[in-house]
Amino acid sequence: MYTRKMLIGALLEYCRGNPEYLSVVDIGLVIDISAKSNIEDHIQIMLKKCFKVYQPLHDNLPDSKE
């Protein structure tokens, strides 16, 4: 249980955005539409299996784009 809380906390602190800012960005953007679709499909499968899915609500750099 403690490990899950730590991982969720770490996820919430990750900075997603434009990889041009490597000094402040932890996670870059999804490579293409196909990759994004695969990720979204996987999330839906996990939700249907009643797994909790944690993800940031938005990118946290002002110039990041999907």
Task: Describe what you observe in this structure.
This protein is an all-alpha fold and 66 residues long. The protein has one domain (2-48). Helix content is 42%, strand content 0%. It contains two helices and no strands. The protein starts with a helix and ends in an 18-residue tail after the last helix. The relative contact order is 0.21. The model has no long low-confidence stretch (mean pLDDT 79).
Radius of gyration: 13 Å
Largest sheet entry: none
Mean pLDDT: 79
User: Helix count?
Assistant: 2
Distance between the termini: 33 Å
In which range does the helix fraction lie?
A: 40-55%
Order of helices and strands: HH
**Beta strand count:** 0
Structural class: mainly alpha
Brief overview, please?
With 66 residues, the chain is an all-alpha fold. 42% of the residues lie in helices and 0% in strands.
Write the layout of secondary structure elements.
Elements: H1 2-13, H2 33-48
Comma- or semicolon-separated keywords:
mainly alpha, 66 residues
